[in-house]
Design goal:
With 143 residues, this protein is α+β, with helices and mostly antiparallel strands. The protein is 45% helix and 18% strand.
Length: 143
């Protein structure tokens, strides 16, 4: 039968379990204190760099959609396109509709992203002449 050798990790004959537990407890205590001190600053949006916007924690989905629609309405090239803004979550919106070029498609997402400050803008805008054309394989099948 093989022999199994078990060694205890020691430092000069002492176990490291005590100092390891003490370090873990100290780290947890420091983390808790820093969370209590810095947590309210993060909730109020202090230091976020976006002055004049409502902190994300208090913004509703309706406010996010309103801000996105306002941003689109203020852009002369996008105002009359009747693009739709669909809320996915408190910090994610989807853009739907049709535009005449890829440039306008990209511009709409950038305008909404810059103005609203959402975590994500999902661009589902379609381009006339590209997205409405049938795929060649479908044309053959329908003939």
């Amino acid at each position: 039968m093989p022999h199994v050798i078990v060694r205890r990790t020691t430092l000069s004959g002492r176990s490291l379990l005590g100092p390891a537990v003490a370090g873990l407890a100290l780290g947890a205590a420091v983390g808790f204190v820093l969370g209590e001190v810095l947590g309210p600053r993060a909730e109020r949006g202090i230091g976020s760099g976006r002055s004049g916007t409502v902190p994300e924690a208090t913004r509703s989905m309706a406010e996010l959609v309103h801000d996105a629609l306002s941003a689109l309405a203020q852009d002369a090239d996008l105002a009359l396109l009747m693009l739709e803004v669909i809320p996915v979550s408190r910090q994610v919106v989807e853009l739907h509709g049709w535009v005449g070029s890829r440039t306008l498609r990209t511009r709409a997402a950038r305008v909404v992203g810059a103005r609203v400050g959402a975590d994500s803008v999902v661009n589902r805008i379609l381009v006339h002449g590209e997205d409405d054309a049938l795929a060649p394989a479908l044309d053959i099948l329908s003939a």
